[in-house]
Structures are given as structure tokens and as C-alpha cells.
């Protein structure tokens, strides 16, 4: 009941959250995607809602139910996610990019099913646009939070993304070897210019709640 009341430190704030994977078609029956259940992003959307924000959740394909009180926009490709995010962020104050966006798409989508003519197949891929970096550039006043999934050198890679993409905060997590993906638990290392905060291993809901509290505190410092 409490979670549906639009009260709390983010009352009056419009927040946009991306979550889940994207799906990049290769031909009519196949696609490239990323490993992501969407659970952490959905939990972030719910945590921001619980703090009073009006939340739009831009979601790649997942099997998760829409958090009550959250407006969900379903997308498939990185290009769709960019378009939906740019539109939703036009009147927003907070953007959290939790989606596992595909970095590459097919250079050309085949009109008919690719047949197994040869023993080897080489796919030509093209980089997708970076949703987070593009939204940041378009909306300089927005408070922008990125995620970073890393298999090594977590802080170096995460701080590099924080700087390069001009973020206010980045939430980094270790991935691979069964960590984070499709699990109900997670842990995060948060970094911002001049500070950091570790969120210890807990349910994705608890991790999202702690992240939302840090967002509230960092945003208050910036306002
Ligand atoms: N991201 C995005 N659009 C993309 C790729 C990534 O919005 N095309 C966002 C993710 O949602 C995440 C952040 O950028 O918030 C970092 O994603 P990550 O994959 O860790 O970093 P990349 O910048 O894509 O670099 P790399 O995959 O090479 O580590
Ligand atoms: Ca990436």
C-alpha cells in the first residue's frame, strides 16, 4: 500500500529506467541478444516508485510482470530503446540505464532465413548507438545513472564509463561465472566523481532500495 502512494523524496520527479536485454534481428527467425533477466532494472523502477517518483520503465523482452504503478514501454532493439528513451526523458529529471543493450546489430537484416549452405558463416555487424551516452548529451540537466557489467578491473572500467559518458553515478557489478545473471541476489559498487559506496550482497529489491537512497542523496547534493 505504501509503495503506491506518490510521496517521498522523489515526489514530483519523473524517472525513466531502462531494463532487460535488447534483441537485434539477424533474419526473420534469429536474433542477437545479451544475457539479462531484467530483474535488477525492474527492482530499481519499483524502488524509485516507492520514493515517490513517476516512473517509466523502458523494457527489452523479459518475462517479468510490470511493477504496479509503473508505466511500461516495451521495446525490442537498441534503436527502439534509444527512441523510447529520448522521448520519455524529454520531461524527466532522472534516468537510470540498467538495460543490457546489445553493442552490435546485424549490418543488414536478411529478408529471408539464412540457410546453412556453408560449414562457416561470418556475420557483418555494426555498432548500435549508445542509449545512455546519447540521452546524457541530449539532456544535460538530467541526473543520469549508468550501470557497468564487468568481468575484470571493475573500478577502472566503471570510472572510465562514468567520465566518458558524463554520468552522475555508475553502478558496477561483477558478471560471468554465474554471478548476477538470472539470480535473485546481486551486489553493486557505486562510483561518482570523488566518491564511492559498496552495496553488499542482498536481494535485487534490497540492492535497488539502497541504490535509490544513494541516488536521492547524490541528486540532493547536485540540486
Ligand atoms: N548502454 C546503452 N546503450 C548501449 C550500450 C550500453 O545505453 N548501446 C548502457 C548500459 O545500459 C549501461 C552502460 O551503458 O548503463 C554501460 O554498459 P556496458 O555494456 O557495461 O558498457 P559499454 O559502454 O557498452 O562498454 P563495453 O560493453 O565495451 O564494456
Ligand atoms: Ca556493452
TrEMBL record:
The record's free-text note on cofactor binding: Binds 1 FMN per subunit.
Cofactors that this protein relies on: FMN; Mg(2+)
Listed EC numbers: 4.1.1.36, 6.3.2.5
Keywords: Decarboxylase, Flavoprotein, FMN, Ligase, Lyase, Magnesium, Metal-binding, Multifunctional enzyme
Residues annotated to bind CTP: 103, 113, 147, 161, 165
Gene Ontology biological-process annotations: coenzyme A biosynthetic process; pantothenate catabolic process
Pathway it works in: Cofactor biosynthesis; coenzyme A biosynthesis; CoA from (R)-pantothenate: step 2/5; Cofactor biosynthesis; coenzyme A biosynthesis; CoA from (R)-pantothenate: step 3/5
GO cellular component assignments: phosphopantothenoylcysteine decarboxylase complex
GO molecular function: FMN binding; metal ion binding; phosphopantothenate--cysteine ligase activity; phosphopantothenoylcysteine decarboxylase activity
Sequence segments annotated as region (Phosphopantothenate--cysteine ligase): 15-223
Residues annotated as domain DNA/pantothenate metabolism flavoprotein C-terminal: 10-216
Catalysed reaction equations from the record: N-[(R)-4-phosphopantothenoyl]-L-cysteine + H(+) = (R)-4'-phosphopantetheine + CO2; (R)-4'-phosphopantothenate + L-cysteine + CTP = N-[(R)-4-phosphopantothenoyl]-L-cysteine + CMP + diphosphate + H(+)
Family as reported in the entry's similarity comment: In the N-terminal section; belongs to the HFCD (homo-oligomeric flavin containing Cys decarboxylase) superfamily.
Function as written in the Swiss-Prot or TrEMBL entry: Catalyzes two sequential steps in the biosynthesis of coenzyme A. In the first step cysteine is conjugated to 4'-phosphopantothenate to form 4-phosphopantothenoylcysteine. In the second step the latter compound is decarboxylated to form 4'-phosphopantotheine.
Protein name in the entry: Coenzyme A biosynthesis bifunctional protein CoaBC
Amino acid at each position: 500500500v505504501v509503495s503506491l502512494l506518490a510521496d517521498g523524496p522523489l515526489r514530483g520527479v519523473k524517472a525513466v529506467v531502462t531494463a532487460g536485454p535488447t534483441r537485434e534481428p539477424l533474419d526473420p527467425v534469429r536474433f542477437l541478444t545479451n544475457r539479462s533477466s531484467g530483474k535488477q532494472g525492474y527492482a530499481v523502477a519499483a524502488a524509485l516508485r516507492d520514493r515517490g517518483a513517476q516512473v517509466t520503465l523502458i523494457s527489452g523482452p523479459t518475462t517479468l510482470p510490470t511493477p504496479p504503478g509503473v508505466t511500461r514501454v516495451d521495446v525490442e532493439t537498441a534503436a527502439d530503446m534509444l527512441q523510447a528513451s529520448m522521448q520519455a526523458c524529454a520531461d524527466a529529471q532522472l534516468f537510470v540505464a540498467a538495460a543490457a543493450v546489445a553493442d552490435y546489430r546485424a549490418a543488414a537484416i536478411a529478408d529471408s532465413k539464412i540457410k546453412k549452405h556453408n560449414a562457416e558463416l561470418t556475420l557483418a555487424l555494426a555498432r548500435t548507438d549508445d542509449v545512455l551516452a546519447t540521452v546524457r548529451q541530449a539532456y544535460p540537466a538530467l541526473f543520469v545513472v549508468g550501470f557497468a557489467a564487468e568481468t575484470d578491473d571493475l573500478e577502472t572500467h566503471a570510472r572510465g564509463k562514468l567520465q566518458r559518458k558524463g554520468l552522475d553515478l555508475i553502478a558496477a557489478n561483477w558478471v560471468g561465472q554465474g554471478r548476477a545473471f538470472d539470480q535473485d541476489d546481486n551486489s553493486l559498487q557505486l562510483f561518482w566523481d570523488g566518491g564511492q559506496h559498496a552495496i553488499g550482497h542482498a536481494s535485487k529489491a534490497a540492492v535497488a532500495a539502497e541504490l535509490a537512497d544513494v541516488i536521492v542523496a547524490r541528486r540532493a547534493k547536485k540540486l
